[in-house]
């Protein structure tokens, strides 16, 4: 049996959904950047460097970086956006009162490449459908004499 969101939480759901959608896309993009960076680092032995001797932005051999290591920067930024993604996942999950397994599935979106993009579409469609149904039923109740 699925639980319904609490009436007090319903006005806050669109904002939580907006935060989830934004953090989902940003986390997914940085996860893809991180995967590409790891491939370059471990397959080719280079890291992305900003302001080093090889130019403004260049791939330099690992261990020879003298400028800003953007590879580490991508890793750190993805980590912090994943924390925001987990927060938005938890917020939406708790307002919608979904089962815990749903929270875990959505949380995997920030760990498995491209999953956050697919989940973002699916979750947004489901929440928006719930809100539209809720609005339609409220309008039907108001229209009754």
Automatic annotation (TrEMBL):
Transmembrane segments: 20-44, 64-87, 99-119
Domain of life: Bacteria
Keywords from the named record: Cell membrane, Membrane, Transmembrane, Transmembrane helix
Subcellular location per the Swiss-Prot or TrEMBL entry: Cell membrane
Record-annotated DUF3817 domain positions: 17-125
Pfam family, one: DUF3817
Sections of the chain in a coiled coil: none
Membrane topology, as annotated: Multi-pass membrane protein
GO CC annotation, single: plasma membrane
UniProt xrefs under PANTHER family: MEMBRANE PROTEIN (PTHR40077:SF2), MEMBRANE PROTEIN-RELATED (PTHR40077)
NCBIfam families recorded: integ_memb_HG
Protein name, as recorded: Integral membrane protein
């Amino acid at each position: 049996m699925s639980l319904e969101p609490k009436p007090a939480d319903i006005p806050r759901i669109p904002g939580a959904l907006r935060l989830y959608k934004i953090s989902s896309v940003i986390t997914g993009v940085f996860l893809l950047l991180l995967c590409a960076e790891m491939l370059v680092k471990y397959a080719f032995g280079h890291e992305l460097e900003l302001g080093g001797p090889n130019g403004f932005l260049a791939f330099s051999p690992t261990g020879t970086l003298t400028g800003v290591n953007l590879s580490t920067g991508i890793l750190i930024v993805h980590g912090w956006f994943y924390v925001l993604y987990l927060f938005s996942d938890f917020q939406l999950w708790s307002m919608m009162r979904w089962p815990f397994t749903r929270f875990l599935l959505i949380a995997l979106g920030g760990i498995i490449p491209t999953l956050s993009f697919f989940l973002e579409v699916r979750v947004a469609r489901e929440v928006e459908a719930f809100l539209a149904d809720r609005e339609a039923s409220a309008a039907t109740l108001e229209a009754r004499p």
